[in-house]
Amino acid sequence: MRRGADASRHRALSREAVIGLSLALAYLVFAAIFWAYPFFWLARLSVTQWRFFDEPVFTGGRNLLLTVQDPQFQQAMWNVLRFLAFYLPIAFGGALLVAFGLQHVGRGKTFVALCFLLSNVSSGVAVSLVFTKIFSSTGPLNAWLFGWIGVRVPWTTHPTLAMLAIALVVAWKFVGYYGLILYSGLLTIPREIYDAATLDHARPLTRLFRVTLPMINPQLMMVLVFAILVSFGLFTEPFLITGGGPADSTATPQMMIYETAFRRLQPSHAATMSILVSLASYLLVLAARRLFERKVVIA
Amino acid sequence: MIARRTLLTLGAGGLALLAGCGPRRTEKRTDRIRFWVAPNEAEEGFWKIAVARWNALGRGLPVDFTTIPTAGSSEDTVLSALVAGTEPDLCSNIFSGFAVQLAALGQVENLAAMPGYDALVARRNMGAILAGWTQNGQVSALPIYSSPTLLWWRADLLEKHGFSAPPRTYDEVYAFCDRYGVARQRYGMQVVSGRWWADRWFDFISFYYAASGGRPYLEGARALYDNAAGQQAAGFMDRMFRRGWTAMDFDAEEPLVSGLAAGAVRGPWDVERFARIYPDTLARIEVGPIVARAAGEGVGATFSDSKGLVIFKSSRVARPAFDFLAWVLGEEDLNLLWLQRTGLSPARGDLLQNPRFARYYRSNPIGRAYADHVVNAKPPALSEHTIDIQKIMTTKLVEPLMGGQLSPADALAEAVAQTNRMLAVQA
Q1: Residue A3's pLDDT is what?
Q2: Residue B11: its chain A contacts at CB < 8 A?
Q3: CA distance A160 to chain B (A)
Q4: B277 and B137 co-located in one domain
Q5: Residue B26 covered by a domain
Q6: A226 contact B CB<8A
């Protein structure tokens, strides 16, 4: 009797699994075509020498050696960290302002939220072209600064300021989106916790650092992970605004990969770069989660 | 049962999708010539007429043309098509450096080996121009037009500051800038064209060619521009920045329109743009040569922005395609039509002597100035490492000069040394 029941449950589970599998199949096929196949092709390319039209020839670790010794690639990877140093404070500061601001909006909250999202969905190319003009040494921002305090800021021709300019443009694009993520976190914090904190005479800053920020840790982590991924995937803004200059100070790994594959016609070398970039981004995300992720339990 | 059927259906669909992603090279046709042309209205209009005439004449295989199906750069699209096997037989809009890359990859025909090549060169008077397109006796692309770079000046601003003609020497530019420039508000001339590697064609390389009389800046795997001409060109750029006679960039606006700068390097393609957007400014433009230390006798040298046509190795109709090419490039009527439609000077050495073109240039002084320089306009160095060479030129020479971090001599030495190291590694 017992064996019969087990067999019947097994058949039922199998049927459930088959249905689940068939539902997941579309995604699995998609992932196989657009993720697994390119990844394995990249892995194969990275240990070969191939120039688009010939047969790949196995070269072992040569591409890896060339890539890690390439000063331009090293500079591009360092530039990711430089970008993050500017981007994270701007993005988190801006996103928190958006989130707190939204809490105080009464009517038309959806409209305001939608407005913040507009910058996120606008074309990176169009945005970059507009900001190129704004940041120009002879552009409106500098004309205003010159009229006001008599200085022109070399936004795109000074290595540090150029990276700051890129970070500002990218932050403008993403701050609204990040703000909405943080706002969703703020909505989940029970009012009673703040009441209790107030009874304990907690000041606003104490409430921010002891209650609000710890309670929205999952949302903050999500924004942090997104920000890291954005920094490793950066292409359009530096490509159009600074061209990677001055002195390669805003060149990014994605720009290097594109130019190596399609301008220098060295796809094997570019494949190695792309694998290293994915590994670096994965490790950085992992490190960030280890360091900052906390479990939030609302009893 | 339902699940199994669903699985089978989804599996079949997935396999079909995978099969569709497999390599599938297009079977090359032998009854037509497939031709890609530059994706712009003016050139497309020309090819529409030229191809219709060829097809009506019935002198060879009919031609089917489309614009290069690109949303970005033509090079990326051509490359993708070559990898996918969907490239045409014939393609225009190829710059010489890309043609050399394609030749190094064995993807394009050597046009110098085609029957009828010598007759075409003679008929089109393009022997001198082709010197810059020939590498080891091989011609991978035939230039269809040659667009010299020249300096545009606002004639009204020159006159107002005591100049009756565009400056021809560095000293004349300095003298004008001294009178016209207002610190950090108004500049004599735009010196640096932009921050992209290709912008070097329109600043340092143009100045170098003008200073050296058109001597090459690269030979094989060796950069040559750390010489007297390089010193002069770099010295000029350095002085313009140190004295504040030019700005770091002019991205915010077209400087010639507002007079933010009174002079700038421009190509003939800008004539059509200005005629459309800034007709009033165009009426006040006077074209002068690229400045050098001393004004030489006759027409000075400058850079030529040229595009050419290639025939792909995979073509099964390479000979008929070359016949079409030779017909289009060799027919004076079509060369004139090209000039009228695009405003770009055909790459031929007799533009001002040949009466067929004289009438066009009589009524078009700016076009005439460009035509004057076609013979002395030099294309970029033929190298498959063009991008790296010019990126080094940007980061080690032009940017340090802009910021004043290095002297012209040190910047030149550093740029040349790094270029040579890069070329040695690539070799």
Answers
A1: 53
A2: 25
A3: 13
A4: no
A5: no
A6: no
A27 touches chain B (CB under 8 A): no
> B-chain residues within 8 Å CB-CB of A154?
248
Q: Of A18, A137, A248, which has the smallest distance from its Cβ to B248's Cβ?
A: A137
Task: Select from B321, B309, B307 the least CA-distant residue to B115.
Answer: B321
CB contact under 8 A, B76 and A264: no
**Shared-domain flag, residues B184 and B277:** yes
**pLDDT higher than threshold 70 for residue B34:** yes
Record: contact B399-A247, CB cut-off 8 A: yes
Q: What digits encode the pLDDT tens for the residues B203-249?
A: 999 999 999 999 999 998 899 999 999 999 999 999 999 999 999 99
B161 and B262: one domain? Answer: yes
Q: Does B395 touch chain A (CB under 8 A)?
A: yes
Structure tokens of A196?
């209790």
Report the alpha-carbon distance of residue B254 to residue B252 in Å, rounded.
7
Residue B127 structural domain: 33-147+305-378
Cα dist. A288→A222, B148, B210 in Å? 11, 54, 55
- Domain count for chain B, please give it: 2
**What are the residue ranges spanned by the domains of chain A?**
2-38, 71-292
Nearest CB neighbour to A246, from listed B250, B387, B399:
B399
Residue A107's pLDDT is what?
Answer: 84
Report the pLDDT value the prediction gives residue A299, as an integer from 0 to 100: 63
Burial code of A195-226, b = ≥16 C-beta within 10 A, e = fewer? eebeeeebeeeebeeebbeebbbbbbbbbbbb
**Which pairing describes strands B261-266 and B187-190: parallel, antiparallel, or unpaired?**
parallel
What mean pLDDT is reported for chain B? 90
**B20 pLDDT tier (thresholds 50, 70, 90):** very low
Chain B residue closest in CA terms to A52: B83
The helix/strand/coil state of B75 is helix
